[in-house]
Amino acid sequence: DTAVSQTPKYLVTQMGNDKSIKCEQNLGHDTMYWYKQDSKKFLKIMFSYNNKELIINETVPNRFSPKSPDKAHLNLHINSLELGDSAVYFCASSRSAARTNTEAFFGQGTRLTVV
Amino acid sequence: GDSVTQMEGPVTLSEEAFLTINCTYTATGYPSLFWYVQYPGEGLQLLLKATKADDKGSNKGFEATYRKETTSFHLEKGSVQVSDSAVYFCALSDGQAGTALIFGKGTTLSVSS
């Protein structure tokens, strides 16, 4: 049973296209995240939702739009893809953001390649 | 703001060698500290954690002690195996509402037989 699952695992697309990445968690967690991992493995938080409410919205181009239909799902839609968007995108979840000592559980990642 | 600094890699070791990956942090308050591991082509997995000063986290032969006086959380293993080859990330959580884990830049470990 996969705890945090993302689809697709690989995504190759042309510049200018619009694409979505889906994420689902079956852990009963309240909080979900999107992280971006660049080619040097650096991980940067993009967004965080707690009970479907956006609580973290880092400096990310507004071409990126998260959407949480319910607390078990957090999708990421990207408009007008650019070469620099190529990266691995990780979804993660954790218990309530207000709790301390809470580790995050990560999905397998989506490797996005923009050509 | 809060931050995590890890030693630069890559770290290359022979099997059964001793491993240390240094990690220091800057944070207000009393953060929780974590080590995550990322095997090739996979997501991040929690390796160990410590939630208060002097706590020692341990798992799979890896250990790290939360040192408040030196703001450090160094990862150690007495005898590495080829299967330990991966990228290791130190991270902190300040436990405040609306914050996410803050990661170091990651250290790539390569173990040869």
Oligomeric state as shown = heterodimer
Q: Termini distance of chain A?
A: 34 Å
How many individual helices of chain A?
Answer: 0
Contiguous low-pLDDT stretches of chain A (5 residues minimum) are: none
Largest beta-sheet details of chain B: 6 strands, mixed
- pLDDT < 50 runs, ≥5 residues of chain B: none
The percentage of residues in β strands of chain B lies in over 45%
Which tags fit this structure?
heterodimer, A: 115 residues, mainly beta, seven-stranded mixed beta sheet, four-stranded antiparallel beta sheet, B: 113 residues, six-stranded mixed beta sheet, 12 strands, 50% strand
Describe this structure in words.
The complex is a heterodimer of chains A (115) and B (113). In chain A, 0% of the residues lie in helices and 55% in strands. In chain A, the strands form 2 sheets. In chain A, strands 2, 4, 5, 6, 9, 10 and 11 form a 7-stranded mixed beta sheet that branches. A 4-stranded antiparallel beta sheet of chain A has the order 1-3-8-7, with no helix packed on it. In chain A, a hairpin with a 2-residue loop joins strand 5 and strand 6. In chain B, strand 10 and strand 11 form a beta hairpin. The radius of gyration of chain B is 14 Å and the shape is globular. The interface between A and B is medium-sized, with 27 and 26 residues.
